[in-house]
Amino acid sequence: MGCVQSFREICDRQKNTNVRFSLPAVCFVWQTAMIILFGIFIRYNEESSPRWKEYRREKNISSDIENDFYFRYPSFQDVHVMIFVGFGFLMTFLKRYSFGAVGFNFLIAAFGLQWALLMQGWFHSLDYTDGKIKIGIENLINADFCVAGCLIAYGAVLGKVSPVQLLVLTLFGITLFAVEEYIILDLIHARDAGGSMVIHTFGGYYGLAISWMLYRPNLDQSGRLQGSVYHSDVFAMIGTLFLWMFWPSFNSAITDHGDGQHRAAINTYLALASTVLTTVAISSLFQKHGKLDMVHIQNSTLAGGVAVGTAAEFMLMPYGSLIVGFCCGIISTLGYIYISPFMEKYLKIQDTCGIHNLHALPGVIGGIVGAITAAAASESVYGHEGLLNTFDFEGEFKDMVPTRQGGHQAAGMCVAICFGVGGGIIVGCILRLPIWGDPADDNCFDDECYWEVPQEEADIPPVLQYNNHMQNKDVVESNFTMEQN
Amino acid sequence: MGCVQSFREICDRQKNTNVRFSLPAVCFVWQTAMIILFGIFIRYNEESSPRWKEYRREKNISSDIENDFYFRYPSFQDVHVMIFVGFGFLMTFLKRYSFGAVGFNFLIAAFGLQWALLMQGWFHSLDYTDGKIKIGIENLINADFCVAGCLIAYGAVLGKVSPVQLLVLTLFGITLFAVEEYIILDLIHARDAGGSMVIHTFGGYYGLAISWMLYRPNLDQSGRLQGSVYHSDVFAMIGTLFLWMFWPSFNSAITDHGDGQHRAAINTYLALASTVLTTVAISSLFQKHGKLDMVHIQNSTLAGGVAVGTAAEFMLMPYGSLIVGFCCGIISTLGYIYISPFMEKYLKIQDTCGIHNLHALPGVIGGIVGAITAAAASESVYGHEGLLNTFDFEGEFKDMVPTRQGGHQAAGMCVAICFGVGGGIIVGCILRLPIWGDPADDNCFDDECYWEVPQEEADIPPVLQYNNHMQNKDVVESNFTMEQN
Amino acid sequence: MGCVQSFREICDRQKNTNVRFSLPAVCFVWQTAMIILFGIFIRYNEESSPRWKEYRREKNISSDIENDFYFRYPSFQDVHVMIFVGFGFLMTFLKRYSFGAVGFNFLIAAFGLQWALLMQGWFHSLDYTDGKIKIGIENLINADFCVAGCLIAYGAVLGKVSPVQLLVLTLFGITLFAVEEYIILDLIHARDAGGSMVIHTFGGYYGLAISWMLYRPNLDQSGRLQGSVYHSDVFAMIGTLFLWMFWPSFNSAITDHGDGQHRAAINTYLALASTVLTTVAISSLFQKHGKLDMVHIQNSTLAGGVAVGTAAEFMLMPYGSLIVGFCCGIISTLGYIYISPFMEKYLKIQDTCGIHNLHALPGVIGGIVGAITAAAASESVYGHEGLLNTFDFEGEFKDMVPTRQGGHQAAGMCVAICFGVGGGIIVGCILRLPIWGDPADDNCFDDECYWEVPQEEADIPPVLQYNNHMQNKDVVESNFTMEQN
């Protein structure tokens, strides 16, 4: 701890938020690298290649509509909206950091998805005959998923880092994600369609560990900017609602064709509905006068979607989904009320968006729910064929049984946490280097650091504002007239 | 009337908007009830169960893509967006009630869809072999539809009721909806794919009757908060546009596979386009200086979608759709200009969002259009098979003829109105009880009652604001500099 | 030039923005004309008619899911969102023109799509057996595409024209569009799935030519209104993101079933991702202190989608898409920094939204990329069947070869530019007539001209505001209390 402390002190020099050379340099170099790597590695798969018609005949596929595109494209677009509008607008709640929220979210997602196509491609879609990664719609969805992990981490450090740091966070985040995903899904053979473990737990702990490494003892110097204003809260609700509405698509996007996608959508739909009611209940109950807190409505209502991520494709049953949502609404809201202040005060983890309560904790719950549901699976419920299909008991795992699968699920959970915490600490160390252009403690949560912000009349003190108004005589006169009426 | 009046007086005691115990209590108890009822009654249907593959083979279905999920999921997601973003943001136009608009919309929709799955399930999806309700994607769409009826009613009482009242309104609204829907669609055998009658007419009159029961003679005490501000009008346009764009999905979501969905989408697309032009025309014509009124653009542009709800799947013909939209744009806008003030003044119905002009009246028109189109149907236009499929002339209705179907449509219309008005009066009585925590007359349309609202600098009177600014010297100085340039 | 100048002077009389009679008149007359023309010409096609089931049997189509509706409806809805929310909100960035941006966008799109169904129908979907236009989902998508051309043109004249002028612009724009599209796609046999040439190049130059004809030397009199405010920039990001996210649907909406749609979506997805990084890089590099400019992020990030429009369905290869996006991000952002000021100062083209940099220039690049990619096509890459399908080498073009196709693509490009510039000059002449109710030079970019704008407290000068506050004593007192704490 002492070592960490002294490392921190070394890094806290005079801050300079000018990223005029570092940001363009990183963008150009990395994008050029992407082009080269894509040129070497990435090709279309059979379903997106002009030879699809021949492939169709070979495989005896009767119609173009059976191209995977038509199974997954609607879900893909919903997931895409969640990544860019959902995550982006959810973070616009701060009064003067909406540009950074939605703009940097845009930047790192756009970079991340390219890198994810490569990283995940090497692990999952490499065609060993020619050494190329063959991509189709499912790869795009997985790339968006991978990006989601990094955007979750962004939530923890929102307003406290520079865009260059975010790009570094994303580069390492995607890399770690692809590795842990490979270990969890392929080596351990855990199932995790909606990514409770792979995405949310990993992303959550990754972000929290980074935030812990970047702890700012004097962050209260930016306290004036740390709240919301009326309209920024409404903007954030755009993010919340698009996440909430499209979560069934998120959890069902890469599940099995047919009943797999169908069931995952239903379970997620129900879990989320249940979460809303318990979130409202707890928010009102724990506030003086019973008033609702926008922070809870914006965030905790989504916890149920996180927590059914793993089990959504299993026979969780409709009431099971409601129960998971019920519990997560309570736990997540209590997290905002009790755990977040505790973590900031005692654990030195400053979590701007409360990702611990929205992603990390519900993700862990989701992993546990998934393990239990898997362990409880039986042929009487799933049918023989259904059980094999749902849990993918084939190939080297053809002798797997549900109870052991439950153990594997739990093992996957642990891997996700380890990668999140471990990776976050290492990346956090890197991000503490005094070269990234991050803002000073009294300058956090302020778009002025990295954006040309339009000057508004409300920014000018009233005396000047009045003079200013006098110059626009028309406006003033019409107002006087209005007053007299 | 005298009786109603005195009942009103009894109920108007000192108002207390603290819902700290009632709101959590209702949420917890009802959500727990949902879990229990779902545990007893709700199961997956064949298409969302792991036995789907076996079912496919049995029924000789050649591909997973013929799972109903792929026919309806894109439409479902569009409807879902309409319910949560469309209705939610449409109501954000008030200057200080955006939290309540979008937040309570969220709450009651999330509760309503659970209760709707049960209520509609008992009537429509009960499997008599095991007494379970078997749900799939179509049930989710129907649940969203059912919720729409209650959200319409919310529009009439927006800003004047507590969240607890809204939950009660929803509980009864969903129940009434399921019953009237069963009577209209199953017993009377009316067709109503887009719900002109079942959703909009019922929801509209239900809300208006409740608003009439909750009449507040001194509502002008909240007059300062009853308008919009510039940005709240822009937020409301988000709601308008998502409703407008996705209405073709709404009207086609549960119509027949193939041509049914295709035709319903085309008709709705056209009717809505036509409505926009006549709305703009009337809005400009009836305003001094020809300026457009945002209230009309936000609301009346949608009336065409309501009015083709019933007939969208019939052979309304493209020009027929345009004519319906043409008329509804005119009628709805004139409604906002003349009927709403009349209703408030003489009928004592305060209709915050003007749902009479957007839902009730166009819904009735839609019912009439549906009845006429059905009565005019012929084999020469539909083809023999097409006529049977479109109007579902089979089973006990296999001897039905189009003219009689027209009569049944009209009968359905009457049932919807009766359920709306009757149900609204009863529920309105219940909501007048002085136990629900509704706001006082001078406190309506104010988020302060039920939400922790962030303090904004603009709320502070200028003298204080100036001092406040002086504390942030940097800001002030930079502004001075700017002024001098 | 002298002639144009004197014509301009004749037209610059006293401005009167009252459109109380002209706007309703145009709306009513045109909408009535639409109804009559639809009555004469427009009918459902086989896939949306009740005779679909018979047609299916005739054509041996095995399932309802092969109705074109299911191939294209999800893409259609995404395109629809781009037209109404994407374009509408992208233009809300001006501080006091958000109503006009989103409202007039709504109006002209709603009119334009009806007229487009007719114009495009006459050229492409006319059934010569009965003289009727048979419409289905693909016609709706094409109508939306056609509208996009006019909305692009609106971007150039945003804030400087009346709604009546916009309707005239749209009427002629749609007409010109349908003709040039017929020439380019049918006569010249160029391929242009995503409309780089047909939509963006044409729309861009059409708008620029109109803006040149409507040049206002004293536009700086409205300078106070020409910037953005903080929240208007956030609103504009809603438009940006929905355009960005759904662009893969735009470029793939009318490509071939199966691999065509699949590949177009992948290419667009990649090009757009790449554009974001180079836009950020250039924006930061060319700004003092390296701060990002919202104008660039809102607009230039989309240039990659425009530029792969033509080639998206070809074998552009994933790395090719990245390269196109890379270049367009740079060029478009530099366009905003250097070309737009140059055009305004020296070419007398005032381009409010910078459509030259977002549509015209990237559109031309897209045409060139398309021509090169087509010319480079070979059977070894596409396969024999793939080549024929992708480039539609059949019927009278069955002897076409890729190199010649490249030439045809380039020819198509020239036609698009000529139609844009030529049509824009003619329509610009018409719009200069002093009868359209356009605003005076000191009144541009102001919603007050055409909208009832709500009065806001911030509009009232501070002294009055203070008194105003004093009337709401509660508020003031609570603030005092807050201050003392």
UniProtKB/TrEMBL annotation, chains A, B, C:
**For this UniProt entry, what's an example GO CC term?**
plasma membrane
> What GO terms are given for molecular function?
ammonium channel activity
Asked if the keyword Membrane belongs to this entry, the reply reads yes
A biological process (GO) of this protein is: ammonium homeostasis
Membrane topology designation? Multi-pass membrane protein
Membrane-traversing stretches: 21-42, 97-118, 139-158, 164-185, 197-215, 235-254, 266-286, 319-339, 360-378, 410-431
Where it sits in the cell: the answer is: Cell membrane
Signal peptide range: none
The family database entries (Gene3D superfamilies) matched by this protein are listed as:
Ammonium transporter AmtB like domains
Per its UniProt record, what InterPro entries does this chain match? Ammonium/urea_transptr (IPR029020), NH4_transpt_AmtB-like_dom (IPR024041), RhesusRHD (IPR002229)
**UniProt superkingdom:** Eukaryota
Q: Locate the Ammonium transporter AmtB-like domain: which residues? A: 68-435
Which UniProt keywords are given for this protein, alphabetically ordered? Ammonia transport, Cell membrane, Glycoprotein, Membrane, Transmembrane, Transmembrane helix, Transport
Presence of keyword Transport: yes
Q: Per the similarity annotation, which family is this?
A: Belongs to the ammonium transporter (TC 2.A.49) family. Rh subfamily.
Function, as annotated: Functions as an ammonia transporter. May play a role in the elimination of ammonia in the gill.
Q: PANTHER family recorded for this chain?
A: AMMONIUM TRANSPORTER, AMMONIUM TRANSPORTER RH TYPE C-LIKE 2
Query: What is the name attached to this protein's record?
Result: Ammonium transporter Rh type C-like 2 isoform X2
Give the species. Scomber scombrus
